[in-house]
Here is the input.
Amino acid sequence: MRRRDFITPIGGAAVSWPATVGAQQKQPLPTVGYLGLTSGSGERDLSAPFLAGLKESGFDEGRDVSITYRCAEGDAGRLPALCAELVQSNVAVIFTGTTVATVAARKTTSALPIVFAIGSDPVHLGLVSSLNHPGGNITGISFFTNQMEGKRLGLLHEIAPKAQSIGVLLNPNNPFFDSQLKDVTDTSRVLRVNIHIERATSEREVKAAFQAFGQQALLVGSDLFFFSRRAFVIEQAERFRLAGI
Here is the structure.
């Protein structure tokens, strides 16, 4: 082959390369759907460890992955519709950080992968078949905080051993209310301490509970309603000078 014959095809190909490269479309980033219970600003604060974990795994937001937030502003009733929006927007996976959001996501889709980080027992809730073999489209981590009320009561008793009575604030709408109530009641008998249980499902009822507690120590049960209003609960505890956990 003559040198001129060899160079000509390459030259022709070189002229066409920019057009070929320019025609390629930039591939969209995979999207994670973040389903939260509290406000958007609150969820962004809570999602900091989540974002850090993604980065440690090589996924930097905006560079390797995009995140679509849907937040219920404290209204759990909005979660199914918000999750449906995430499904319709074709996210690659849905992340949930609360029990109610996880339950809503599980009821909304059986196809999209769901990853959760919750404090409840996922087997008891029917989210997974077992801890070792979750099955289906859902997996994650549980901290089992709803089963720790007795241990937290014992720790509070050590912190405030002179408290004549310990106030216990629980949310009767919590799906684990019965087990929480039994846990603290059984533990109080073992510790031989008096407990004063108050139920609250609103800020008005929380205020009334603190009025009823008086001067004593306080255990706030693990609950998303209380957590989403933690600043308000802490303010009330400071107002009545209660040692709390």
Summary: The CA atoms of residues 7 and 13 lie 10 Å apart. The chain has two domains: 31-143, 147-239. Residues 1-23 have pLDDT under 50 and may be disordered. Strands lie at 31-36, 66-71, 93-96, 114-118, 138-142, 165-170, 194-199, 217-220.
